[in-house]
Amino acid sequence: MMKKLSTLLLATACVSSFSTFAAQPEFPHIVTTGFGEVTAKPDMAKFSVRVVETTLTAEQAKQAVDKVVSDFLTKLNNAGVAREDILSSNLYLAPQYHYPKNGKSELVGYRASRNITVTVHDLPDLNTYLDVALEHGINQVDNIQLLVSDQKGFKEKARTAAIADAKQKAEALAKGFDKQLDGVWRIDYDASSAQPVMMRSMAMDAKLESSGYQDSSLVIRDQVHVIYKLTN
């Protein structure tokens, strides 16, 4: 009878896959998954841009890309962006070929590119830096990521909410079956689950008004899997 009760409680309370736990205990228990989330307004950002140039010679392609990157970095520095907030990749250089239907391939030039990632600590400055990039030869915006400066604090709040949710579920289920909790037997937690999610889709348009970025929200979610023991 006790084994059947244990199986019933397990099936009722488990809101995640049994594969979450490597081993299941033999004594009466409840498996719960607690979920928590907090909403935050982004106050900083990170964006990645790329400059790509194709010319007849490798040296021309390199010089063209290096000039654009140098001008952009100078403008960012003049705008007050700290050097540690700028990450510039090495030059990527590749030959470009034309492949006619008949005959051998023909070398037609060289393509050079470099990536630059910039961390923006004051969100209203984001569009200004994007405009600077486009005005100085950057011809590709790869990614714009909105962030919160106190991401650690928001993650901790989401985790606390997930713990409280798991405990509340376990207590309610135990009470519903006239049982009592007898401590925690196991906790499984994956820190990677606490990742921010955009509440509002944001067009990756460098000309989007800054208010569009600031009106967006980030939701930081977290979860925890817990096995509670039950009294006999």
Question: What key phrases describe this protein's structure?
Answer:
4-stranded antiparallel β-sheet; disordered N terminus; 232 residues; 32% helix; elongated; alpha+beta
Task: Characterise this structure.
This protein is of the alpha+beta class and 232 residues long. It is 32% helix and 35% strand. The chain contains 5 helices and 9 strands, in the order H-E-E-H-E-E-E-H-E-H-E-E-H-E. The protein has helices spanning 2-13, 58-78, 126-135, 151-176, 210-214, and strands at residues 29-40, 44-55, 86-88, 92-98, 106-120, 140-147, 181-188, 196-198, 218-230. The strands form 2 sheets. Strands 2, 3, 4, 5 and 6 form a 5-stranded antiparallel beta sheet that branches. Strands 1, 7, 8 and 9 form a 4-stranded antiparallel beta sheet that branches. The radius of gyration is 27 Å and the shape is elongated. Mean pLDDT is 84; it is low at 1-21 and 201-211.
List the helices and strands and how they pair.
Blueprint: H1 2-13, E1 29-40, E2 44-55, H2 58-78, E3 86-88, E4 92-98, E5 106-120, H3 126-135, E6 140-147, H4 151-176, E7 181-188, E8 196-198, H5 210-214, E9 218-230
Antiparallel strand pairs: 1-9, 2-5, 2-6, 3-5, 4-5, 7-9, 8-9
Give the structure's gist in a few sentences.
The protein is α+β, with helices and mostly antiparallel strands and 232 residues long. The protein has helices spanning 2-13, 58-78, 126-135, 151-176, 210-214; strands spanning 29-40, 44-55, 86-88, 92-98, 106-120, 140-147, 181-188, 196-198, 218-230.
Number of helices in the DSSP assignment:
5
Class per helix and strand makeup: alpha+beta
The helix/strand order is HEEHEEEHEHEEHE
- β-sheet strand percentage: 25-35%
Distance between the termini: 12 Å
Question: In terms of per-residue confidence, which ranges show pLDDT below 50 for 5 or more consecutive residues?
Answer: 1-21, 201-211
Number of beta strands = 9
Rounded Rg: 27 Å
The largest β sheet comes out as: 5 strands, antiparallel
Average pLDDT over all residues: 84
* Fraction of residues in helix: 25-40%
In quaternary terms, these chains amount to: single chain
